Amino acid sequence: MVGKPFRRPETCFSMDMLLMSISRITQSLQPLDRSFFKPLKQYFKEEASKWIPHHPGRTISRMQVDDLIGRTWNKAASVYTAVNGFRKTGMFPLDQDAIPGHLATK
Predict the structure, then answer these.
(1) Residue-wise over 21-47: b if at least 16 C-beta within 10 A, else e?
(2) pTM higher than the cut 0.70
């Protein structure tokens, strides 16, 4: 939607559009951003790319999102993925060298 104004969530809902934003919400969710949401978003895009050619002229609505998320969730969600996110961000085990300087307290 380059060049078009952002639609408010109420407008999207009334038009049966799904408004998704998978991004950093708070610093405490950053490990999940790096280890879970990033691959989930990529896997979702891959599944959507497979779905679209089989449904010409249709758009992905809320009816299809649950199926697409269902196909991608188990690929992205695992204990290893979660633990790796906390390790990469330096939150656990604590690694102050992995934490950006403006967030680290020494």
Answers:
(1) eeeeeeeeebbbbbbbbeebbebbeeb
(2) no
